[in-house]
Amino acid sequence: MPLEAVGPRPPSRWRWREAMTVASPTQTLPFALGERHRATFLKGTDMIGASLEHRDAIEAFARRHWDAQPWAKDVAARTRARPDGVDEAAAPQAASASPR
To answer: What is the value of pTM for the model shown?
Structure first.
């Protein structure tokens, strides 16, 4: 038999989530979630949706990262595109970083 959400029936169809209980014909059981998971549960999002709430900050971080390390941007695609598999843009950086 399927479980149903219980609690006062509010106008919003999502408000039952705030009660954090499920019911069967014989019992009502509470459940708990950590704060982060509860917030995404109440919003109806997943972890990707929660991450996208911070999209501007993520994009700003990526710009700073690639500005500081332009040689590393798209290194895998550039390496795959070369017939010999060596990325010339990254090669000088790698050579200077290796111990001698």
So the answer is: 0.47
